[in-house]
Amino acid sequence: MTTPSLNTQSNAQGSFGAMLQQARKSKQVSLEEAAAELFILKRHLQALENENFADLPQATFARGFAINYAKFLGLDATKVASSFDAAYPTELKAKSVNNTNTPLRPMGTLQRDTRNRIRFNPLLILAVIGVIVLAIFLFRMVSNASKENNAEPVPTVDDVSEIEQAQGAAIDSTTGVGASGSALNLGGAEVGPAALTVKLTDTAVISIIDASGNSLMDGAQTSGDYQLSGTPPFSVKIDNVDNVSLMLNQEAVALDTYAATDKQASFELAP
User: Fold this and answer.
1) What are the two backbone dihedrals, phi and then psi, of residue 208, each rounded to the nearest 5 degrees?
2) Structural domains of the chain in order of their starting residue, each with its CATH number
3) What is the pLDDT of residue 96?
4) 3-state secondary structure at position 83
């Protein structure tokens, strides 16, 4: 009389492996994909599907693999675990128990230095000294800069507003369109009509008044392109420059140059 093999015995007691394999193929998942998702070796998943218990680790680990595999495939984990328990060979269970009861063997002992010596790393000491020197140097630089800023305020001209001063400093050399001096037309020549193109990517509040006092645009404007014409210089106010692009006589105006921290801008503009 011959003794049935492990695979034959498992197939006689249950067929959880066939359930796993069928579910995997139904989900159109390869063994490689399942192994990567579950962090289980591909050969172990193959052994579960084939119910080849000899290629699996201890019963406890193999049973956990089967349960996690069943959950991943959307099967009833309890049913799969019961089928696994029924199919697992008795001789492998006994071997697994013997391996579990084997006491741990010490791998060696750690030796402590009973002299309690304290060792200093010269490179670490030099690094600490360097950090201290750098901190002192930076502290002195900040102190000197603070003294220079607090030395004496620069007097301002009473007949020039803060907005006009900001416009005088905000000149965009790349576009040829500036503010302040250029907007006031200091050359003395007569200024003709100028064309403004306003493009909005989103709603924004815009006010544009030309030199004649005509309101070319005022209030909340929706996204779109607007073509305007009037006598420069133009008085421009924008509540959010991020939503607006402006062109004067087909030349782009750098609105970020005039914008404050809250993205609002108020300036005069002329060719």
Assistant:
1) -130, 120
2) 6-99 (1.10.260.40), 168-269 (no CATH)
3) 61
4) helix
Cis status of the peptide bond prior to 153, with omega within 30 of 0: no
Each residue of 137-183: pLDDT tens digit? 999 998 888 877 776 665 555 555 555 544 555 544 444 444 444 44
d(CA 16, CA 81): 8
Helix (H/G/I), strand (E/B), else coil: 249: coil
Which whole-number Å values give the CA distances from 40 to 21, 65, 83, 196, 229, in the listed order?
Answer: 15, 7, 20, 67, 72
**What is the rounded distance in angstroms from the CA atom of residue 66 to the CA atom of residue 45?**
8
List, in order, residues 6 or more apart from 204 with CB less than 8 Å away: 220, 221, 238, 239, 240, 243, 244
The conformation of residue 53, written as its DSSP 8-state character, comes to G
pLDDT, residue 84, reads: 93
Burial class (CB in 10 A: 0-12, 13-18, 19+), 233: buried
Provide the pLDDT for residue 8: 38
Distance between CA atoms of residues 256 and 241, nearest Å: 7
What single-letter DSSP state applies at residue 196? Answer: E
Q: Flag residues of the chain having pLDDT under 50.
A: 1-14, 101-114, 165-166, 171-188
